[in-house]
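Sorry to interrupt, but I need a hand with the structure work. Leave the record below and I will have a look:
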Amino acid sequence: VQLAESGGGLVQSGGSLRLSCAASGYSLEPYQIGWFRQTPGKEREGISCIISGDGTTVYADSVKGRFTISRDNAKNSLYLEMNDLKPEDTAVYYCAADSRRISYESTWYRRDEFDYWGKGTQVTVSS
């Protein structure tokens, strides 16, 4: 599976962006998929995930109520709608997929659960 993010950019505080992640090579439908972000010197942070099987969506507390994750199986794509952006949301955003075809919620935010990654897209929020 190859993943490619797009949609990042520069936005003012309070603004919105929609990130996309296009998959190729294999269908994402059976996989648990998510979004992570990383800033220099910090660990890659899990921010949202779609749990495989029932499609439950989960979010980190830092983005809950502002970000919405969704998928379009027909387009083999994952999305992240980001509203009310804040300067602390500035980071490189990555989409990721777990090819094991298992469902789990307890560790969805862990980087090491995912084996396919995109190259990332930069999001910068100015104050």
